[in-house]
Amino acid sequence: MIKITQLKIPLEGGYDEILSAAAKALKCPKRAIISLEITRKAIDSRKKNNIFFVYNVEAEVDGDENSVVSKSGSSKVSIGERFEYKQPELRRKSTLRPVIAGFGPAGMLAALTLAREGLNPIILERGNDVDKRNQDVRNLWQNRELNTDSNIQFGEGGAGAFSDGKLTTGIKDKLCRKVFLELEAHGAPNEILYSAKPHIGTDKLGKVVKNIRKEIVSLGGEIRFGCRLTNIIVVNGVIHGVSVIEQGASRDIETDALILAIGHSARDTVEMLFNKGIRMMQKPFSVGARIEHPREMIDAAQYGSFANHPLLGAADYKLACHPEHGRGAYTFCM
Ligand SMILES: Cc1cc2nc3c(=O)[nH]c(=O)nc-3n(C[C@H](O)[C@H](O)[C@H](O)COP(=O)(O)OP(=O)(O)OC[C@H]3O[C@@H](n4cnc5c(N)ncnc54)[C@H](O)[C@@H]3O)c2cc1C
Question: Tell me, which fold does domain 2-79 have in CATH?
Fold first, then answer.
């Protein structure tokens, strides 16, 4: 497969313009391109009187790819490797079911992985499923009644479930692609696979979460909502089980494998782990502030006379500063 980067396409340009630009970069006729997949789409708005899209694509060509690449003579054309996820080799011998605490993004992906290996994971989630959780959150906003186990932070989908589903990360790990592929396979818009600012949307987020849950359950996983991990049963340094409070009643579950996917806000659970002497590592963190601007102001600043262009949507920005004292600041998830 051949990778082509930085194809500049006018705003109104469609697939044919992208194909033509790819053929031009490869110095081959359009018909020699057997397949073309967009891998990134971004907006270049540096010149306010000439705003265009910039695409990266992957192409399959008729003929020897190496010679097409060298004939192109362009630094923007190279041989690429398609991302392929390899499920780690299963070495588990135990017949006990693994337990995962938390059904946010980390717990969902862990549960999918284990369920696909036939390990029938048990997932403990202190909050409610997405529909009941919606009611819990509405109850807080309307009646000021807080459910301490099911709210904006806790419940199916995790802490970002009430966001608008922007998929923002500062890390450049190959596995990010795997996460995006899973989200798309479970109902997120296809654009997340190539958009420079991938975004699921509040309306679709709940559906994606439910679809992931359905697959886990169909493969033999069990998700227990309203079920809080309260203790880890450790004997001679080995985990023998966990204690939970489920619908007000306390009980133990036997297991020898536990994944903690409890997010940032479960202070009681972190305290329990600390009190049990479980080794934990501190992680640096950033402190966030929310800034609100009128959309028209940002659109005008970024797009100039192109503001409100129907093909551009709302503009955004990304800023960072690195002062000498070493504590930087950056915008995140606009
Ligand atoms: C308001 C808000 C908006 C956000 N918006 C975005 C965004 O737009 N884009 C973005 O990329 N990131 C966003 N984030 C950050 C993102 O939500 C987190 O990075 C992500 O949710 C972390 O995933 P996680 O699975 O590690 O933890 P979490 O999502 O926090 O999930 C942990 C889960 O564990 C459960 N749990 C905790 N303790 C226990 C226990 N003892 N027993 C059982 N269950 C337990 C909790 O109920 C929770 O559901 C947002 C965060 C917030 C709070």
Answer: Alpha-Beta Plaits (3.30.70)
